[in-house]
Design a protein that fits this description.
The protein contains 4 helices and 8 strands. By secondary structure, it is of the alpha/beta class. Strand 2, helix 2 and strand 3 form a beta-alpha-beta unit. The radius of gyration is 16 Å and the shape is globular.
Length: about 180
């Protein structure tokens, strides 16, 4: 039986959401002093790069950008089997920074908890904020997003997929029903 797919956001919708989230980040932080963006591999790192580009264009200043791999910080590592370990790249000190952690889809909160654990191994940020393209609910941990591209209520058996092109640009977000 084929799975039913519904497009939640097309490329234009994703672009609008990224622009809005960039403005919200700047408004909340009163600019970009001590601001840094860190994307969670894989997916969040590409979105963090897009956010950095929008913020740089708005503020005419380059905001530091990093990426974190959470493979070794996951609480379900044994259940997931052996996965390749990605590379964490944070080429700036985190101490005193207002870090915006970026991910594509927020679901249970476990990925975000893992990412925060990983960040703490690199320094002590002043704050950690969370930006996500899609918040689909169903939290298992007390984690909430500060900046959301789109809230999409889902059933647990459904899936939300962010589709990236060959250049790692998001082109659509789909809701997949069994």
């Amino acid at each position: 039986m084929a799975k039913a797919e519904t497009i939640i956001l097309d490329k234009a919708g994703i672009d609008r959401a990224i622009t809005r989230v960039a403005h919200e980040i700047l408004e909340y932080n009163k600019g970009c002093v001590d601001l840094a963006l860190i994307g969670i591999r894989t997916g969040g790192d590409h979105l963090a790069s897009l956010l950095q580009s929008r913020i740089n264009k708005i503020e005419e200043i380059e905001v530091p950008l990093g990426a974190v791999d959470i493979t070794m910080y996951r609480d379900d590592l044994a259940a997931r089997g052996s996965k390749p370990i990605g590379k964490t790249e944070i080429p700036f000190p985190l101490d005193g920074k207002h870090v915006v952690l970026v991910d594509d889809v927020l679901y249970t909160g476990r990925t975000i908890r893992s990412a925060m654990d990983a960040l703490m191994d690199f320094g002590r940020p002043s704050t950690i904020q969370l930006a996500v393209l899609i918040d689909r609910g169903h939290r298992e941990l007390p984690i909430r997003s500060d900046y959301v591209g789109r809230n999409v209520p889902t059933a647990r058996e459904e899936d939300v997929v962010v589709v990236f092109d060959e250049n790692q640009n998001p082109v659509e977000v789909k809701l997949v029903k069994p």
